[in-house]
Write a structure and sequence with these properties.
The structure is a homodimer. Chain A has about 240 residues and is mainly α. Chain A is built from ten helices and no strands. Helices cover about 60% and strands about 0% of the residues of chain A. Chain A binds a DNA duplex (30 and 30 nucleotides) through helix 1 and helix 4.
DNA sequence: ACAATTAATAGAATCTGTTCTACTTTTCGA
DNA sequence: TCGAAAAGTAGAACAGATTCTATTAATTGT
């Protein structure tokens, strides 16, 4: 029943109610319904104007969310601000969540760049991890409304969300000296993943006004100290 | 503005559109939460019929959610099933989330009872904690739709949600021998809290179909082993 | 018992995410 | 260059949560 139009995005969220069709979902019967057009890879690229449109949309969305939060980020408003039709917005982002995920993506990019520019300097793995996490915290808390909206939505996302995994991967890199998703043991992966989820939880509590910045730091430190103790030393197994 | 009717519940959720009202949500101390310094203090107690109405509502909600998930748990339907008017439902539960929170409360009660009846027998704190968490996992996964709906909504909740805290308290009790929120150190509290958030995250991943029961168990064990090592001040555990 | 206050009810109305329709403009291959 | 398919557009339509209105029971103080 769910007929997600013909998506432009590669990995739409689309609530998995029923059939979570792989990417290019079956188009509706009403319209042209061209055989799913194999892969948009034909032209492979988005037109420049499409890139721009997309950018404008994400920008508008972020702008709106950075004030009023998700509530202020209404699809109609976003479309209007971005200068596209509601239908177009939905073609680019099949659901509000997809839009949120896109906005989050930008934020994480920012963090990764920051880390690349100025890598954490602490000597212990947990020290470096805490450094990165608190840096991310500060970055996100600069726009609390946005952060709130983003984190929440991400946790809610039904499908593959780049957030947790990207964060865990990031921690893996900074904590384990040069570790990557490939060279890490399952346990190491689990550990950074756990730390990541602790951090997300603390962030949420902070956004709820139930934690101060200091408390978050303390708790993250406590968890990191234990989770990442002898991180690069004992492959255990 | 925002005239939340005259709520019957003590801690309504009410999205904080604009200026988050003082949100007298601060009870948390167990159920009952008398007074709260509000107007409902007049009669103090709810009539029997009100208890019943409330019960019917929560029941209907749980029943609906245990099938179709939150989606099937529509306010109109709940009201109808419970035999109350939509307005009445909203008087008892100012938002859908409040209703969800109530349903969750019942689930946690169940778990607590289960633990009381059959306390975890493992010898290490982390062993006992894992026991409890996996028991909770099995309980929740018995009704995946419900679990999904509940967990998600709780994480989304804007305000004070009994979930994380209650879970952390529970872990505190089973891990630290007879510890309570009062006798525990801040660090111990932080640690059980962290373990709780790791568990919630794994549960979510499981609901998303990205983890098997075994994987969850393994990851929870890994995290618990580190977080709760020497939990009761006994190095080398 | 009786007026005033509070709780409930039915149902309309509002708000916002999402879908649908009918049409116009772009893009692009032949 | 021509024309079909894709992409865009405007705006109506639909759905479900939440709010509002008018009216009818209950409850309670005196």
């Amino acid at each position: 029943m769910r007929t997600p139009h013909a998506t432009i995005e590669a990995a739409p969220t689309s609530r998995a109610t029923g059939t979570s069709a792989p990417s290019t979902a079956g188009p509706s019967t009403g319209k042209g319904a061209p055989g799913v057009a194999s892969e948009p890879a034909s032209t492979g690229v988005r037109t420049r104007s499409q890139h721009q449109r997309r950018k404008r949309i994400v920008q508008a969305a972020a702008a709106l969310a950075s004030r009023g939060g998700v509530e202020a980020m209404q699809m109609r408003t976003v479309a209007e601000r971005a200068g596209v039709a509601l239908g177009t917005l939905y073609r680019y982002f099949p659901s509000k969540m997809d839009l949120v995920v896109a906005v989050v993506g930008e934020e994480i990019d920012l963090l990764e760049n920051s880390i690349e520019r100025r890598p954490p300097s602490a000597v212990t793995p947990s020290g470096r991890a805490v450094d990165v996490l608190m840096r991310a915290t500060r970055g996100l808390m600069r726009e609390p409304e946005l952060a709130d909206a983003l984190i929440r939505s991400l946790i809610m996302a039904e499908v593959e969300t780049p957030f947790g995994d990207r964060m865990a991967g990031l921690l893996l890199r900074v904590a384990g000296d040069g570790l990557t998703a490939e060279t890490a043991t399952e346990e190491q992966f689990a550990l950074t993943g756990s730390l990541s989820s602790v951090w997300v939880h603390e962030l949420l509590e902070m956004l709820r006004g139930r934690r101060t910045h200091e408390q978050v730091q303390r708790r993250v430190e406590i968890a990191a100290a234990r989770l990442l103790a002898d991180f690069t030393a004992t492959p255990s197994a």
